[in-house]
């Protein structure tokens, strides 16, 4: 027997044995034991993707939070073939530049070795050798049938399947962008796809001969179909988790949107199987691939793949190369911690004089962009007190604009709105309100009809030929940034004279079968909650700003991603105005006084909006500001103008403006420039979350990289505010941090690629070019300026000034929060009362840090 024949015989014998083993195990699965558990895991395997209207940052590794960070990197690499760490060359450059020091490496190595042995010079040298060596990573061990076919025969089945499913999903979930609606939208996803597949010949055109006949053999219900497919593919129980993950990751964009739909239903107490229906669709394609290819090469390769998936699930051994990269990432994290701890240790300057009453208190969102403006304001007005608080100001409202039946959820996506607030026109009687509403609806219908005419198959050509030149002036002014290309959606259909009069109506009433506004008790409860959470119970200034934030951009599908994440990807104007209205209510103040919070009689709250693109501050409801505060308001406007210029000058270098003196003009122009891929940097650079009195950080330039939440544990009698901070703002900050992290380390897997190539689909999301999967995460332009990373991939460092036993209590009570800390998705530090002594939470113990 020749050597080649012997090898072939041995290989076939191995395959037969493997097949028998898998069939034996498969028989033991009756009635498919393990499938239900695998489907439950699949439901939440992919993190949700919010639509463009309310795009918010999401932790792309949400389903892996229960695993150690290093283990999650292994799972993602092994199953999905996706890197969660930077290329080794990136870390080598940081070492060569001195950014990562030997001390940082020792810290990271000690953590990887769990302190089992000291990291002496020889150990460090050994690790440096491993870092310098050429890396060789293990191959992925999870495959779809289409992956196997591509490898066996050089086809493009996986790409074609993704393309077909993406086209289907974009039509099925279209929110009004398409001119023609899909006829099966009223049916559940899988059944709709099944019905369409009976007449759709495109798979056969692409080379899947007999596709329709094969799909016709599948059951009509998704769970039954999945069961049949799993049986046909002879997939063992141990392979199901990896296989389902690999399948969904191949269409992760649409799977993420399906998960969002499920998330929304779960907030309403309902259950959703949308992800499972989409899984059934994708598995049906694998089923077709398997049934239409019965050659020995493919079928043998599929058995090998099944064995590999089982082996991959059984193996707990980490890839040694990924271990090296994990240590390098930990060393990079340690380098930032070293730098930040050094800044926080610097002594604070003594105040020049004690001010008995602050002239202004200004509350901003904890957003990292607010840190820049707060420093600027404190510089021009040293006696001002700035405060950091979640930008929805504790008011989880649904804000319903004029002319709409439903509104936007103005609260973190972890919450569901508790109150409904309608937009109204101040001073308008019922006749005027009816006229304004009717005119807005008429203009919107006319605009929609006009758009349909311009984009129709026939009229579009004639229209461009005859009327194209009339748009030349508008085209020129838009291109030069002198005008906006389109009106902001909030102003759509309203007259310019009406816009300044629009605002929230907080009156308690019944409208359209829904309770709107707030009762007096609700107002008092909400006011008490927000003041306590801001540690603001006394010493009120004459003016108190509540500044939500939003952004100003054009031609930007992801514009809502630059708005307030705490407001569900919307501008924080409604929340700030509602909070100010309630806190200015005399009845509310009387109720607060009975509860021990006395607001000074001459204190007035201002609802404001910080435009993070231009750093301009808008002050709303000016007509209600008392005449007695006219001089205070004039002084405030001067401070805000100066602070805005300072903030723009500081941001100018990152925006590529060499001369800070030009910042005022050029930054304003960027906000109207439809060709600008980076109107602002959003939350790029975020790396820290600090919950402490402002005195701990006021003297420190945090470079716009820290979420700042004011917190004084001495005023938190039952530590309920601490619990709220750690379970809401801190978690949201971690989502933002990990979204930026993922988009930086692997834009193809966890980001949305090149913004220049984006095309909006269904008003839901974007495609890269004219096809492929729905894109998730942030664009390359959101994290990189073309030469270097503006967002450095660092895990979030959380510093909280509070007793360690209280921090531990929150971790013990909330498993999801404990997972973030104990599995090293974030780092937790405790600050002592003096602001200098620091302890780091490490494996259940508090370790002093220098």
Structure described in brief:
This protein has 850 residues and is an alpha/beta fold. Helix content is 46%, strand content 11%. The longest helix has 26 residues, at 320-345.
Task: Name some characteristics of this structure.
850 residues, alpha/beta, 4 domains, six-stranded mixed sheet, five-stranded mixed sheet, 31 helices, 19 strands, 11% strand, globular, disordered N terminus
Q: What can you tell me about this protein's structure?
A:
The protein has 850 residues and is of the alpha/beta class. The chain has four domains: 203 residues, no CATH class; 81 residues, no CATH class; 319 residues, no CATH class; 168 residues, no CATH class. The chain is 46% helix and 11% strand. It is built from 31 helices and 19 strands. The strands form five sheets. The chain has a six-stranded mixed β-sheet with strand order 13-12-16-17-18-19. A five-stranded mixed β-sheet has the order 2-1-9-10-11. β14 and β15 form a beta hairpin. α12 runs parallel beside α15 and α14 runs antiparallel to α15. The N and C termini lie far apart (70 Å). The N terminus is likely disordered.
What is the terminal separation in angstroms?
70 Å
Mean pLDDT: 90
Percent of residues in helical segments?
A: 40-55%
Poorly predicted residue ranges: 1-19, 25-31
Q: Overall 3D geometry?
A: globular
> Tell me about the biggest sheet?
6 strands, mixed
Spatial strand sequence of the major β-sheet: 13-12-16-17-18-19
Number of structural units classed as domains: 4
């Amino acid at each position: 027997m020749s050597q080649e024949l012997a090898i072939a015989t041995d290989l076939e014998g191995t395959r037969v044995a493997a097949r028998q083993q898998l069939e034996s195990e498969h028989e033991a699965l009756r009635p498919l034991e393990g499938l239900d558990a695998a489907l439950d895991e699949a439901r939440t395997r992919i993190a949700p993707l919010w639509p463009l209207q309310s795009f918010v940052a999401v932790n792309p590794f949400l389903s892996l939070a229960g695993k150690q960070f290093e283990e999650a990197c292994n799972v993602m690499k092994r199953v999905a073939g996706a890197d969660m760490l930077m290329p080794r060359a990136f870390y080598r450059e940081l070492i060569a530049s001195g950014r990562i020091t030997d001390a940082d490496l020792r810290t990271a190595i000690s953590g990887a070795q769990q302190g089992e042995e000291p990291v002496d010079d020889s150990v460090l040298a050994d690790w440096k050798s491993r870092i310098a060596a050429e890396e060789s990573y293990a191959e992925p061990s999870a495959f779809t049938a289409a992956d196997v076919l591509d490898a066996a025969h050089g086809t493009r089945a996986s790409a074609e399947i993704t393309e077909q499913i993406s086209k289907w999903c974009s039509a099925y979930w279209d929110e009004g962008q398409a001119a023609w609606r899909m006829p099966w939208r009223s049916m559940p996803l899988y059944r709709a796809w099944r019905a369409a597949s009976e007449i759709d010949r495109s798979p056969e055109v692409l080379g899947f001969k007999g596709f329709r006949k094969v799909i016709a053999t599948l059951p009509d219900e998704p769970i039954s179909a999945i069961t049949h497919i799993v049986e046909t593919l002879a997939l063992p129980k141990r392979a199901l988790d990896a296989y389902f993950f690999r399948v969904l990751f191949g269409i992760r964009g649409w799977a993420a949107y399906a998960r969002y739909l499920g998330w929304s239903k779960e907030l309403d107490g309902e259950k959703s199987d949308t992800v499972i229906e989409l899984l059934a669709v994708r598995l049906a394609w694998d089923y077709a691939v398997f049934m239409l290819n019965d050659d020995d090469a493919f079928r043998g390769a599929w058995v090998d793949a099944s064995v590999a998936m089982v082996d991959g699930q059984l193996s707990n051994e980490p890839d040694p190369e990924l271990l090296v990269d994990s240590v390098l990432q930990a060393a990079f994290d340690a380098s930032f911690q070293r730098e930040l701890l050094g800044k926080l240790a610097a002594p604070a300057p003594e105040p020049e004089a004690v001010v008995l009453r602050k002239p202004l208190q200004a509350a901003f969102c904890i957003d990292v962009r607010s840190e820049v403006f707060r420093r600027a304001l404190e510089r021009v007005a040293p006696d001002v007190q700035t405060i950091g608080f979640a930008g929805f100001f504790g008011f989880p409202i649904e804000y319903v604009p004029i002319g709409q039946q439903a509104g936007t959820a103005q609260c973190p996506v972890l919450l569901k709105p508790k109150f409904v607030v309608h937009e109204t026109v101040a001073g308008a009687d019922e006749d005027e309100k009816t006229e304004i509403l009717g005119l807005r609806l008429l203009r919107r219908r006319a605009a929609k009809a006009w758009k349909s005419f311009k984009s129709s198959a026939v009229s579009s050509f004639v229209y461009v030929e005859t009327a194209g030149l009339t748009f030349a002036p508008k085209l020129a002014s838009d291109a030069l940034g002198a005008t906006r290309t389109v009106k902001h959606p909030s102003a759509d259909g309203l007259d310019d004279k009406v816009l300044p009069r629009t605002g929230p109506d907080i009156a308690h009433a019944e409208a359209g079968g829904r309770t709107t506004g707030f009762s007096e008790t609700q107002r008092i409860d909400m006011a008490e909650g927000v003041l306590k959470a801001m540690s603001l119970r006394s010493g009120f200034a004459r003016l108190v700003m509540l500044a939500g934030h939003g952004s100003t951009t054009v031609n930007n599908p992801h514009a809502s991603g630059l708005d307030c994440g705490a407001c569900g990807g919307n501008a924080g104007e409604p929340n700030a105005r509602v909070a100010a209205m309630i806190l200015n209510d005399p009845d509310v103040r009387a109720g607060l006084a009975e509860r021990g919070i006395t607001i000074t009689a001459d204190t007035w709250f201002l609802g404001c909006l910080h435009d993070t693109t231009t750093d301009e501050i808008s002050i709303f409801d000016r007509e209600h500001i008392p005449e007695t505060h006219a001089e205070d308001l004039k002084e405030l406007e001067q401070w805000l103008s100066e602070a805005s210029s300072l903030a723009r000058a500081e941001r100018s270098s990152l925006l590529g403006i060499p001369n800070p003196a030009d910042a005022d003009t050029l930054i304003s122009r960027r906000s109207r420039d439809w060709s600008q891929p980076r109107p602002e940097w959003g939350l790029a650079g975020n790396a820290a979350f600090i919950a402490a009195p402002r005195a701990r950080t006021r003297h420190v330039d945090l470079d716009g990289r820290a979420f700042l939440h004011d917190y004084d544990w001495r005023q938190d009698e039952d530590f309920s505010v601490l619990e709220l901070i750690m379970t809401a703002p801190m978690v949201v900050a971690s989502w933002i941090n990990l979204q930026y992290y993922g988009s930086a380390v692997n834009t193809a897997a966890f980001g949305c690629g090149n913004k220049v190539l984006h095309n909006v689909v269904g008003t839901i999301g974007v495609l890269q070019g004219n096809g492929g999967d729905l894109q998730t995460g942030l664009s390359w332009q959101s994290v990189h300026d073309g030469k270097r990373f503006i967002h450095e991939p660092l895990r979030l460092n959380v510093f909280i000034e509070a007793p360690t036993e209280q921090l531990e209590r929150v971790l013990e009570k909330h498993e999801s929060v404990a997972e973030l800390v104990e599995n090293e998705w974030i780092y937790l530090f405790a600050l002592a009362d003096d602001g200098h002594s620091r302890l780091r939470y490490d494996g259940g113990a508090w370790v002093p840090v220098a």
